[in-house]
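Worked Example 4.2. Consider the chain below.
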Amino acid sequence: MSKKPPPAHDLLEHALEKNMRHFQAGRIQCAECVLTTMAEYYGFDTPVIPRIATAFGGGIAGMQNACGAYTGGAMVIGMVMGRDEPGGNREPAVTACKALRAAITERCGSVDCSAIVGKWDFGLQGHVFRADGGKHQTVCEPLVAAVCRYLASAHPRASVQAP
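Applying the procedure from the previous section yields the following structure tokens:
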């Protein structure tokens, strides 16, 4: 008798809990946390994850531009809905990315890192110096989790086919 796989919700929460510990400890940043969590949830196994997201944390290279949870989410959308060849249909991914932007903007008022968390110093590797007034815990961590849950809800695991 074979074991029944765990429900998708459990898979997501397990991956999120594991990657959130790395995020909280500064071993990965926001974009990497979203991408690695969702790659695990969807069953994508490739050496480019989290590598492809490394420069996106802290609003892209710690410059506080586009939020890392948003850019990580955009990468996830591309991973699950992107076109496979030049000239392929990009509209599903573009539409999904606009919806993610709207969801983050509704929650935070912006997708701009500096508008969401205010100005703060980032370490050399994009890891936040904890002189941020607790924003990492009160803003970034909940936003990363919310983006992952949004993506899992908007794009259920059963509807995505890993390559």
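Confidence is low (pLDDT under 50) at residues 124-131. The CA atoms of residues 70 and 102 lie 10 Å apart. Compare this with Example 4.1 before moving on.
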